[in-house]
Amino acid sequence: MSVIVIQPTSTALWHQLVLEAEQLSHSRLDTDTESYLVFMLMRYLGKPEMTSKVVAMDYLNGLLSSGDVRDDKLRDVGDTCLLFSGLFPLRAQRRRVKISYYVDMGRSAYLQLSDHHGNSLSRLYLQLSEDFVTMMDILHAIRAMGHQQPLGDALTAAELWHDTGSHSAYRSVIAHTGAMPGTISTQKTH
Q1: Domain of 138?
Q2: Would you place residue 187 in the very low, low, confident or very high pLDDT band (cuts 50, 70, 90)?
């Protein structure tokens, strides 16, 4: 039987969902980052057109823009990459890119914003860049709460874990294989 959750506002409902996902993923965000994630989810999940974005072009256009337009475009790129890597990771497979492609681009977009501002927004965007993988793991937990596999297969999970250190991906490798993954050497032997 499904549980019906009643909250006084949609913000409270989204916040409760993020808190539950934090517990499920064994992650914790600071208040500012958690609030940003809640409001980002509220802002984007009612926009189905965001799934048709070509984030590389948006990123380039953002870098070539200036002022508020630049900030808005780079913020949108960071947010879209977070949603793609966290809630829609199988989209990467369909587009024939690694999930870590979205992680790298999203972190970079937030980092560009942190370099551009000289105030509390700068600190927030730096924190978003640093906590990107943790936020992605929390979004993976939200997928799992909806009974959806966060990552498609063991190879995808292992690749994401290797590239980003994602705890969600690490647990997914164990769930898929029943084995604990070891580190992968990147040194050439010949």
Answers
A1: 10-148
A2: low
